[in-house]
């Protein structure tokens, strides 16, 4: 395996003293996990933030070996991590995507939708401008993995929150049933913060 592609960083788990195992979503190769040497070091720590766009060079000697990756920052979501609502949304969508998608299956529609959603979260003046996109992204993820129907028609914040509430049991049952981590905890925190807007 040898590829060089832009990717959305979805998760970074500590490995050893200074390395991380990064999970990244690429358009053509789907989600790829790779070992990043020095990922917790001073230079790479700001790069391996979930939601960041990176240029990834990924190499492996065989398909059974965990690939090694070199990452270069393209766009950072770091400035929005100080805003509780934006940080919760970024944390939720990246954790959900990392937990739900199988590795090395391309989902170009999801890649594009996730990139657009992250851009909306980081460029909007308030969550009212991106909460509908969040509900649509969750529905798209369910549909792409075979558990959902049509794109929901949303008219306003109230309806978007209702759709988020309706999708929660489907996500917990179908997409996150086999995960060990409490990914739904990130969604609960986000939903509590969104409720304060109403």
TrEMBL record:
InterPro entries, per database record: DNA_rep/recomb_RecO_N, NA-bd_OB-fold, RecO
Superkingdom classification of source: Bacteria
UniProt keyword terms in alphabetical order: DNA damage, DNA recombination, DNA repair
Every DNA replication/recombination mediator RecO N-terminal domain range: 1-68
Cellular-component GO terms for this entry: bacterial nucleoid
Signal peptide from the UniProt entry: none
Name of the protein this chain belongs to: DNA recombination protein RecO
Species of the source: Qipengyuania citrea
Lineage: Bacteria, Pseudomonadati, Pseudomonadota, Alphaproteobacteria, Sphingomonadales
